[in-house]
Amino acid sequence: MHRFDIGIVIVSYNVRHFLERCLLSVQNAVVDGLKIETWVVDNASVDGTADMVESQFSEVNFIANADNVGFSSANNQAIRMMDAKYVLLLNPDTILEEKTLKMCFDFMEGKPKAGVVGVRMIDGAGVFLPESKRSVPNLWNSFCKLFYLSDLFQSSKIFSGYNLGYLPEHETHKVEVLCGAFMFIRNDVLDEIGLLDEDFFMYGEDIDLSYRILKANYEVWYYPETTIIHYKGESTKKGSFNYLKTFYGAMQIYVNKHYGQGDARIFAKVINMAIAVRGLISGIGAVLAVVFRPILDMVLIVFMLYLVKAGWANYYFENNHYYDESPIYWIFSGYALIWVFVLWLNGYYDRNRAGERSFQSLWIGTVLILLVYALLPVWLRTSRAIILLGTIGSYIIVTLTAWFTGLKKSKQNYRVKSPTIAIVANQENAAILKTVIESTMDYETCYFIAPNQDQYHSFFTNTLASLPNIVKKLGISEVVYGSEDVAMKDIIQSMTDIGQNVSFKIGSAISQKIIGSDDRNAPGEFFSLDVKYKLADFRMLRFKRILDLCLALIFIPFIPFLWILSGFSSKIVENIVQVVLGHRTWVGYTGQQQDYHFLPELPQAVFPINANDIGIIYDQKDFKAINTAYARNYNIWQDVKIVLTSALSIKRYK
Fold first, then answer.
1. Which of 473, 503, 532 is the last residue of a domain?
2. How many CB atoms lie within 10 A of CB 443?
3. Residues 526 and 609 grouped into a single domain
4. Which DSSP symbol is given to 235?
């Protein structure tokens, strides 16, 4: 007999806020007398995970690894210490329905030959995740997956074999492979076939485990009667080349382990080819995602300026060739570059920022152009009228390109205006969640939705049951669910009913925190009333980065002097290089990592704040207070002052 019915193991790596929500969903599970033990194995996170688990979830067994030992090894650490009839491998960026554990337990109890069961998974945008059910990789279905054929023909039995796209997502089926984000396993089966293969550092271990369960003549089941949210992308940058290399490298380990030597060689060649192709596509896509909009705007602005120039020359000077003698292409390119640079600097091209501050940015750019214009020789000047008309034309262009490119993306990934929000919570909690939202972001309008049908009050616009129908009518682009007032099953059902053109978030009025993720391949969002740091603003970080580069350029001519001052140390040159590469910042946090891990991330500092206060002894509490004040009240001139006052004492920072 086992002491526990279900043993849950969660491997965590720098996903503190999502882990907190995951553990809360486990805590809220309806177990009807089942005995459950929960283990968290942390792979050397630096985001305060240990403090959070130990302070908020004292019932959880916590293992803190000094190094990142990988997913398989970390799971095995906890499994070896468990005494449960069933083992649940659970990702930290998941949220369970209230009855998920009980339903899976009952399902396995009713099927003695079932070795493992998985459930239906949706991402943070409410979209079904096809990896919820898969088949064992073979040469053909892997080829279709790696070369996008399964994406093009998602319901084809021929091409979608990898993710079994031809099997209905809402029907229970025997399958071959489940996702490691949720695997509810019979412990006796693990005793028979062994634990996770630790040769797999990350990815592939779920395929290997599923296949070994099948080979031992046990069944693998996909059970969609309960659904969980899986915020993919929180621990890994899914689109990166490193991810692709790690993922397909894991597949290679799997192939070498389970295929004959000849087949393994063929499979390895296919995988290596896929890594090259997918890596190239990923790299090109990443570059285009960054530069496409700015380059498009620049080209269109230059073309627009040519049209304005022709019209102005004909109207004002009555001479179409008036500007032919001047280097007009370079002048207009300079104008366009300044406008686009200010737009970028102000965050216009950042994800989820399209449409914000465009008018303000263009006029700031115009002022800069006019200041430069006044210093130019006459033969390089065009006309102030062309500049002013160009400003108006540029505004029209960037608005149109934002609208056009917005049509090519899902609404949740590319917003052209501040969102219209609906908060689903009881009156008191809804007011708290609204305060959290107001402290962290701008929005157009906020509606309040009653969680239950019987809550008729003028405070509410409508009820949760009617939400799918009123989203379009009210133009709602974001829905925030109050976890204290809405059951997770109802939240998941609502997300599914509304569809994927809305951004979904889950908030807690008690903790005053909100989490969400609009894109399965991108890190999620986290909002909190007690977290309002200027250094969390993308624009401040950009200004800080530009300041770092400018100071590095200023220091370069003085390297001989600084070299002598530092006692002929090469550290000054190394610091300049590291700052230029973005590996260090001139001014940043002080103390040890535990003194600032909870703050917006910065590179290691050349000049830690307050480190030049010689003779003052600080303890950990002081360091945390100093770092918090720096992040909360960041001022670019403070950095300049610290660098100037510290430069003459550069020897002490070797």
1. 532
2. 15
3. no
4. S
Measured torsion, CA atoms of residues 92, 93, 98, 103, in degrees rounded to the nearest 10: -70
Which uninterrupted H or E stretch holds 183? strand 182-186
Domain residues for the domain of 528 are 420-532
Asked if 576 and 562 count as a contact pair (C-beta separation under 8 A), the reply is no
Shared domain check, 548 and 484: no
Q: Which of 234, 256, 287 is the last residue of a domain?
A: 234
- Number of domains composing the chain: 3
Q: Is the dihedral of CA 240, 244, 247, 249 positive or negative?
A: negative
DSSP structural state of residue 177: B
Separation between Cα atoms, residue 113 and residue 220, nearest integer Å: 9
Residues 6+ apart with CB under 8 A from 254: 137, 200, 204, 207, 208, 211
In a domain, 540, yes or no: yes
Q: Residue 394: which residues within 8 A CB-CB, separation 6 or more? A: 297, 301, 304, 336, 339, 362
Q: Is 387 inside a domain boundary?
A: no
By the 10 Å C-beta count (0-12 exposed, 13-18 middle, 19+ buried), 13 is classed as buried
Measured CA angle at 640 (ends 586, 650), to 5 deg: 50
Q: State the pairing for strand pair 420-424/445-450.
A: parallel
| Residues 120 and 22 occupy one common structural domain | yes
CB within 8 Å of 84: residues ≥ 6 apart? 2, 3, 4, 5, 6, 7, 37, 187
**In a shared domain, residues 80 and 185:** yes
Q: What does the pLDDT read at residue 261?
A: 59
Write phi, then psi, for 40 (nearest 5 degrees): -115, 125
Please check whether residue 473 lies inside any domain of the structure.
yes
Longest CA pairwise span in the chain (Å)? 98
What pLDDT score was predicted for residue 200? 66
DSSP string, 273-300: HHHHHHHHHHHHHHHHHHHHHHHHHHHH
- Phi, psi angles (nearest 5°) of residue 532: -145, 80
CA 297 to CA 15: how far, in whole Å? 37
On whether both 526 and 549 belong to a single domain, the answer is no
**What is the SS3 assignment for 515?**
strand
Same domain, 649 and 606: yes
Work out the end-to-end distance of the chain between its first and last CA atoms, rounded to an integer number of angstroms: 61
Q: Examine the domain organization and report whether 66 and 182 are in the same domain.
A: yes
Q: What is the pLDDT of residue 649?
A: 56
> Residue 239: its pLDDT value, please?
47
Measuring CA to CA, how many Å separate 172 from each of 76, 103, 120? 29, 13, 10
As separate numbers, helices (DSSP H) first and strands (DSSP E) second, the chain gives 21, 18
E strands, 410-508, are: 420-424, 445-450, 462-463, 478-482, 503-508
Residue ranges for the chain with pLDDT beneath 50 = 233-239, 354-355, 408-416, 523, 614-615, 650-654
Contact in structure between 337 and 298 (CB atoms under 8 Å): yes
Residue 623: per-residue pLDDT: 79
Cβ–Cβ contacts within 10 Å for residue 29, how many?
20
Write down the residue that tokens 């293992």 correspond to. 63
CA distance 282 to 242: 10
Contact yes or no for 88/108 (Cβ under 8 A): no
List the one residue out of 200, 20, 95 whose CA is nearest residue 487. Answer: 95
pLDDT at 335: 92
Residues 526 and 541 in one domain: no
- Domain assignment of residue 207, yes or no: yes
CA distance 324 to 315: 16
Q: Which contiguous run of DSSP H or E holds residue 79?
A: helix 71-79
State the pTM of this model: 0.69
- CA distance linking residue 300 with residue 394, whole number of Å: 8
